[in-house]
Each structure stands twice: as structure tokens, then as C-alpha cells.
Amino acid sequence: MKKLQVLWRLPFPWRERGTAEDGETSLLVPKEKSKGETATAVTYQGTENTAQAGSEEAQIGDGSGDLLSHQPQRPTSVRSCLLKNALFISNLFFTVMGLVVLGMGLWGLITKESFAQERIGHIGTDPMLVFVFLGLTLCLLCLMGCVGSLRENSCLLRLFSGAVLILVAAQVLVAIAAYSLQDQIVPVLRSGMLTAMVRYQDDLDMRFITDEIQMNLQCCGADNYRDWEMNLYYNCSAPGVQACGVPASCCIDPLENGTVWNSQCGVGAQQLVEFSAQSVIYLGGCLGGIARWIEQNKQLIGIVGIALLGVQILTLIVTTRLLDNIQWSKAISSQRDVES
């Protein structure tokens, strides 16, 4: 048993060392014992440096050492000011744009008396609600960024950056879906165009959108001018002057004498053969016009899309840097409070 105890006390390399004492300078070298020490109080010189280093590491881990090692470099006041002002000004600009879009939507609803008692039941299908929703969403999102940057509110900035990140992801997904399902877009556009033509006389919004498309793209109908026979008023069996006709927005020259809008320029156009009708109205459908417009402006659409996406990504980067600066400032303030 005594031999085992002696072996247990031997300083094997894999043995865990004891705690250090004052005055130790080297590893695994027995320290001279004083007269009052017992034989069991065997210590080893040189462990005091290790103990002191361990205590210093513990202090660093508990205090400022860990903070300085993990926190970014201290931002200059000029850089922080530039980040905050850039984020504030950009969000203020988009807030004004959101208010303009929101005002357009509300103006359209009020002008058409969509809030009237007889029309309030159909307000859910009003296209002006799209402008109201987009304007309201843009205003709330940008106001969040404005207040967060101005007040240096980390919570609002995190919500703002999260919303922008979701918006960027949604745009990317929509672009991928549109490219993957481009063969199915044409039937959807045809269905929407035919619906607008059927409701042309009864819905002011559909009339405005259809007229703008036909005049700007110089087209008539979805596939050709004879598609207007689907409309109740332009059908050849319908009573009235508009029977077998097309809207004035299909006419090549809808202005009489160059000044007066001639709403009757498309009367009887469906009864004409294509050779005679081509001198009065546009024969091509709007689906072909949309395809030609996209082909002609493909580069412009790509540049605008990439620019908008780049602005949003740049906004995310600026917001992230501003959040880092705010967190650094708060950490330094907390450290000073602890030290004081």
C-alpha cells in the first residue's frame, strides 16, 4: 500500500498538477520546503506564471479583454454620421414616393365614389386598392427606417432590414418564377385582357387601362380587332350605334381635324375586311404588342430591375453597418458603467 502511495505522488506527465503557490518559477521542479511544512505539502516551482496567466485570462474573459477582441474597431463619428444620414435621406425619399402612390389610390377611390353605399360591396375588386396597398406598405416600411436611423433604435432597424430582406427574396423568386413559367404568362394575359374588354363599358378602371394599352401599344383587342365582339355593346347583334364597332382607342387617328376627339371613329369597323379596316384601326392584338414592347425594352427592363435590387441590397449593407456601430457604442457605454 505504501508503494502505491509513493507512486501516486510521483510527477507523471499525464498527472494533473496541483494549484500554484507564491514563489514558484519552473515546472515540475520540487520547491524547497520550509521547516513548518509537512511532507504532504509537495508543490512544484514554475506554476505561478501559469496561474497568473490563467487569472489574467479569466479577467479578460469576464471584462474588457473579451469585449475588445470580439467587437469591431471603434467607428469614427464622421462614418457613423454619414451612414445614419444616408439611410435617413434615402428612406425619406421613398416615403414621399409612397405617400404619392397612396394619394393616387385614395384620389381614384374618392373620384369614382367607390365608398358610396351602392358600390361599397364591390370595393374589394377595385384596382385602385393596389395603389393604396403599395403606397401604405412603402410608407410604413420607409418610416420605420427613417425613425430607426434618426433615433438609432436597434429594434426598428432590425425590423426594417428584415422587411427589406424579405422584399428582396420575394423579387428574386418572382423573377425566377416569371422566367420559368414564361410560356404560361401569355394565357393569363389573354384572359385578363378579354375580361377587361367584356367589362369595358361598365368599369371605368377597365376602360382607362384598356384605352391606355391600345393607344400606347397601337393595338386593338387581345389577338385582333374582332375580339371586341365579346363586348355586349360592340356585338354585331346589339342595338345602338356601337354595334359591330370598336372603341376610339383602336383608331389610327381618333382626333377629328387634329383637335377634337372622335368617339365614333370605330363605328362598323368589325364589318370591314382587313384591307379596308387597316386604314382606320389597328388590326394587331395587344398581346403581340406587349411581346414586341418587352423585346424592344429588354435591356432597359433588366437595367432598371438590377438597379432597384442593388439599391435594396445597398440599403441592407448600410443598415447592418449602422447596427454594428450602435451595438459597439452600447457595449462601450456598458463597460464604462461597470468600471465606474
From TrEMBL:
<keyword id="KW-1133">Transmembrane helix</keyword>
<dbReference type="Pfam" id="PF00335">
    <property type="entry name" value="Tetraspanin"/>
</dbReference>
<protein>
    <recommendedName>
        <fullName>Tetraspanin-10</fullName>
    </recommendedName>
</protein>
<keyword id="KW-0325">Glycoprotein</keyword>
<keyword id="KW-1003">Cell membrane</keyword>
<feature type="transmembrane region" description="Helical">
    <location>
        <begin position="86"/>
        <end position="108"/>
    </location>
</feature>
<keyword id="KW-0472">Membrane</keyword>
<comment type="function">
    <text>Part of TspanC8 subgroup, composed of 6 members that interact with the transmembrane metalloprotease ADAM10. This interaction is required for ADAM10 exit from the endoplasmic reticulum and for enzymatic maturation and trafficking to the cell surface as well as substrate specificity. Different TspanC8/ADAM10 complexes have distinct substrates.</text>
</comment>
<keyword id="KW-0812">Transmembrane</keyword>
<dbReference type="InterPro" id="IPR008952">
    <property type="entry name" value="Tetraspanin_EC2_sf"/>
</dbReference>
<feature type="transmembrane region" description="Helical">
    <location>
        <begin position="159"/>
        <end position="181"/>
    </location>
</feature>
<comment type="subunit">
    <text>Interacts with ADAM10.</text>
</comment>
<feature type="region of interest" description="Disordered">
    <location>
        <begin position="45"/>
        <end position="66"/>
    </location>
</feature>
<dbReference type="GO" id="GO:0005886">
    <property type="term" value="C:plasma membrane"/>
</dbReference>
<feature type="transmembrane region" description="Helical">
    <location>
        <begin position="300"/>
        <end position="323"/>
    </location>
</feature>
<keyword id="KW-1015">Disulfide bond</keyword>
<dbReference type="GO" id="GO:0019899">
    <property type="term" value="F:enzyme binding"/>
</dbReference>
<feature type="transmembrane region" description="Helical">
    <location>
        <begin position="128"/>
        <end position="147"/>
    </location>
</feature>
<dbReference type="InterPro" id="IPR018499">
    <property type="entry name" value="Tetraspanin/Peripherin"/>
</dbReference>
<comment type="similarity">
    <text>Belongs to the tetraspanin (TM4SF) family.</text>
</comment>
